[in-house]
Design a protein that fits this description.
By secondary structure, this protein is mainly alpha-helical. It has four helices and no strands.
């Protein structure tokens, strides 16, 4: 039996942005473990969504 394991890469390599707050926000939403993943309410309080861009 042969196993194919995907190459380990980072979120930064896939999402070509330099906004650390955005990368943290996306990374939190993509957390596989549901106990560590934010709820919708928690996600809406994320610093990236609350940051006063302008």
């Amino acid at each position: 039996m042969e196993y194919i394991t995907p190459q380990e890469t980072s979120l930064e390599e896939h999402v070509q942005v330099s906004d650390i707050l955005l990368l943290n926000f996306i990374g939190n939403l993509l957390e596989i473990n549901p106990r560590r993943r934010p709820t919708a309410r928690e996600a809406l309080k994320d610093p990236w969504l609350l940051f006063p861009y302008g």
